[in-house]
Amino acid sequence: xxxxxxxxxSQVQGPGVPVRGNDIxxxxxxxxxxxxxxxxxxxxxxxxxxxxxxxxxSLNNHPFNRYPNANILVVNxxxxxxxxxxxxxxxxxxxxxxxxxxxxxxxxxxxxxxALGLPTATADHNTVEWIMEQVTADPALELTIDVETETVTVxxxxxxVTISDAQREALLQGIWDT
Length: 178
Prior knowledge:
Layout: E1 11-19, H1 26-29, H2 43-46, H3 63-66, E2 72-75, H4 87-95, E3 99-102, H5 107-115, E4 120-122, H6 125-137, E5 142-146, E6 151-154, E7 157-160, H7 165-173
Parallel strand pairs: 1-2, 2-3, 3-4
Antiparallel strand pairs: 1-5, 5-6, 6-7
């Protein structure tokens, strides 16, 4: 497949949403009962469906309820672990997520994100916590994931992150859409 300019993902920019916790699995990201959908069209409605609601079904204080305009997800360790369903990154993308910053991502989850053109940038615990604190203090704060330079800019501060060589190459050459 040849690269096309509209498929190149060199930068993702926008407000962030911090979702704290290690080992957030794909069952939390999109509950199994929604996997019977024939298409991914409605998956955005199901992102974190159960953890975003109280027992009576009303929306709670989950970050996806508090940061409805965010498009960069900031997470801790081993995000997207569990079953390898592609529904999880599909749900996040269709909710509005364009890129992710985290301490680590499950390998298959990161691969599924790459196939959707969603960069998964990693950083150490202290850096991720600092980004989460900045976003919590100012929900409108602009974040920028720069795929080429492997940096994240948070307001006026820039920090180094890592994007796997394979993902960076695929996103920058526009060959991520397999």
